[in-house]
Structures are given as structure tokens and as C-alpha cells.
Amino acid sequence: MLEKSIAPNGRTFFIDHRTKTTTWLDPRTGIAASRPQSGKTDDEIGALPEGWEQRDPRFENESIAGPAIPYSRDYKRKVEYLHSKLPRAGSNGKCDMIVHRETLFEDSYRHIMEKAPSELRHKLWIEFFGETGLDYGGVTREWFFLLSHEIFNPYYGLFEYSATDNYTLQINPHSGACNPDHLSYFYFIGKVMGMAIYHGKLLDAFFIRPFYKMMLGKKITLFDMESVDNAYYNSLIYIKDNDPEDLELTFAVDDCVFGETQTIELVENGREIRVTEANKEEYIEAVVNWRFVKRVEAQMEQILRGLHEVVPSNLLRIFDANEMELLMCGLQKIDVKDWKAHTVYKGGYGPSSQVIHNFWKCILSFDNEMRARVLQFVSGTSRVPMNGFRELYGSNGPQKFTIEKWGSSDMLPRAHTCFNRLDLPPYQTFSELKQKLCIAIENSEIFSGVD
User: Fold this and answer.
1) Taking every annotated instance into account, which residue ranges of this chain make up the domain HECT (predicted)?
2) What are the catalytic residues?
3) d(CA 148, CA 112)
4) How far, in Å, CA of 51 to CA of 337, rounded?
5) What is the pLDDT of residues 404-439, one digit of tens each?
């Protein structure tokens, strides 16, 4: 698959997604794309044209034409567009809530479920019972922070930590066994998410990448499994790359529910259908769909129901999965010194290598948002553990950020999120490294950023 794109300096280049290589030469003519005569800043470009969000090429409708929006002003402008288009609440109304700190979850649930969606868009006015003071924003921020700690706490059985990872969450597929009323709570959680986005507040919780893709109605692929369950991912990669006939697999999987193993058919009469070379792609797709979608379909349906009552779904589709994480969970201040101090080098690279020097020079040149995008690209999330990069986790436990020498300078960097590893080609110059890294990150939605 060949794609024409625009580099940060405005020059046209071409991406071969099959080999993950880039070139200035147009493969149709063999002629190099011309350099731009002059660059324009964001201020000179001015406002985005009417309807720009409908021409984002990442949308499913491939017939909609329009150029990709340069990353350098992409996310910020999308957020501005979102807030300019949100349904307006009446200027005089308030959404009052008095909650007890000891029963924050229950009190918040009762208040929010009693209110119409339009009321949840009014100015929030939160009061903790028995505490004096006016809410000019600080109390509301604290309420969202404390409430997110409660509703996403695995103790309640609605969410669980993903694999051995101790700081990204996924929906507990067996939440119904923990709480018969679980779906009403997921509906409530969707409303809270919608309120946070609408009012520009943050939730103190980070989710696995497939969760954000499901929120956006994006297709989840095999490569999304790598950062969540590396062992399962590798077993499916083996099937993908080899003839599965001798494995004697069928279109069924085992699921452990509170110590009891249940066999789940992926398709009708799946136990009777053998996995063969001819149908293995269908099998892999069915397994991924079961693992991330089917098992939590009812829960996610209620989350989206609540979310979209507050924030219309069409306004969220302008974001990709990485941007949804930033929108909901915010940007942590990333300490580059700590990041650098707890990075491992492999394949011939070391702290004094020129390529590594250029990499950290590139990271320092980025703003905090772009640093978060680099971290998302390599680790699957922008979240840094409480005690810094020394406690960074991969899908199999503690795993430091790693940079390994790989490939040639005409190739794009690639990432292995399960190992927090960046495969970095030996680029000769700082500008080439920065350009290729930006291209890889911007296009990670297209070719998953992994090999």
C-alpha cells in the first residue's frame, strides 16, 4: 500500500506501508517531489475551513476527499473545534451536587442518574457535605479526581487491570457476576466521562488502547493485542505465519470465570470447525473480536449510551485513539531527565551514540504533548508511573524504555509496545531522525507502529 503524505516542512513524500519505508521519489514518475518555497506558521494559515473534521482521511468513508491535517496543530485545533460545537447549556442553570466524601460513589451515582442530560451540561457546582467554600473550579476538579479513583477501582469489579500491567485498565468481562446492576453503573460511568469531556476536566485513569478505539467505533486489530497480552499475541502471530493444521484448533476458545473454565464458540458450531490455512485469518479476527469486543459488548454499549447523551458521537470521531487518551486523561508533565536516566540501549547503541544524542535532542525540542505521543507510540500509553520511568511496565511486567538499533535510514522507526521498545534506524542527521520519527507517530494509526 502506497500513501502520499506531507512532511513537517511541507514537502511531499511517499510511504510504502508494506515495507515501512519512505522516499521523496514519486514511484509513478520517478521524479523527486519539489521542496516547498516557503513555510507558513499556524497563525498565517488561519482558521480551518468549514467542515474540515469531515475530511479527516482517518474516517471510514474513503470517498471523502481532503488533505491530512499537519500534526503540529492537529490535536489542539480538534479540541478547540470540539468545544466550539458542543451543545450549549443555558447560561443561568447550575448542576448542583452535595456529596459525602465517605459515600462519594453512591451519592454521585444518585445525583447524576436523577438528572437529564441537558442538566449535566450546566455549570457544575459541587459541594462536599459539611465543608464550607465556593466551587470556582477547584472543588469540581477534586470531585472528578476522587470519583474516577472510585468508579475505576478494580475492587468494585467493573474494571480490571490489564494483564500484569498495574496502571492501565480494561472493562471486566465478568462484571455481571460481581454486581447484578453492573450495566446501570456503566451507563453512569459513560455520563461521567461525557461530563469530564464537556466541562474540560480530567479523569485519573488510563485505559488500554482497544478501549479508546471502541469508544470511537474503530476496528481493533491483532496488533492492538501486543501491548495487552503479549503471550496471546505471539500465539496468534505464530498461527498467522505458519500452517495451523497440526495445532488441531477449532473456532472456540476457553474462558476462565472464577476458576471455572468455559468453552466459548467464536462462530455458530465453532467447536466443529477446524482452523486451517484457508480460514486462519478469519479465526484470528474472531479471536481478537471476542477478546476485546464481544466479551464486553453490553458494558461498552451502556458507556457509549451515557457518553453520547452528553457529548454527541460525531464530535468525538474527529479524534484518534491516542488523542482520546489525552482528551480524557490529560497530559502529565514528562521529566525527560528521568526518562533518559532509565532508558536501556541495545543492538550497538549506547548513551554516547550520535543517533541517541540526536534522539534526546529531538525529545527536548518537542513540547509536552508531542513527548506524550512518542511515549504512546512506544509503550501504548502516555501515562508515566507514580515513581517515574524506573517503574515502567510492559505487558509481562517491569520493562524499561528501550531503544534498539534496527533497519536502515530509509525506514521509519517502529515500536514494540509489549516491550516498551523503539526500533530506531541509524539516521545520519538530527533533522532526518526528527522527520522520520514524526512521520511514524503521525501514521501509527495506519500501520499500527509495529512490525
Assistant:
1) 116-450
2) 418
3) 14
4) 41
5) 999 999 999 999 887 889 999 999 999 999 999 999
Instruction: Please tell me the pTM assigned to this model.
Output: 0.69
Query: Can you give the residue ranges of every domain in the chain?
Result: 2-69, 94-216+296-329, 222-290, 336-447
Residue 354 cell numbers, joined:
550520535
The third-level CATH classification (topology) of the domain covering 222-290 is Hect, E3 ligase catalytic domain (3.30.2160)
What does the alpha-carbon distance between residue 429 and residue 427 come to, in Å, rounded to a whole number?
6
Q: What's the 3-state SS for 286-320? A: HHHHHHHCHHHHHHHHHHHHHHHHHCCHHHHCCCC
Summarised one tens digit per residue, pLDDT across range 305-320 is 999 999 999 999 999 9
User: In the chain, which residues have pLDDT < 70?
Assistant: 1-73, 90-91, 132-137, 163-166, 386, 395-396, 444-451
Q: Looking at the DSSP assignment, which residues form a beta bridge with residue 261?
A: 256
Burial class (CB in 10 A: 0-12, 13-18, 19+), 216: middle
Domain 94-216+296-329 annotated CATH 3.40.50.2300: no
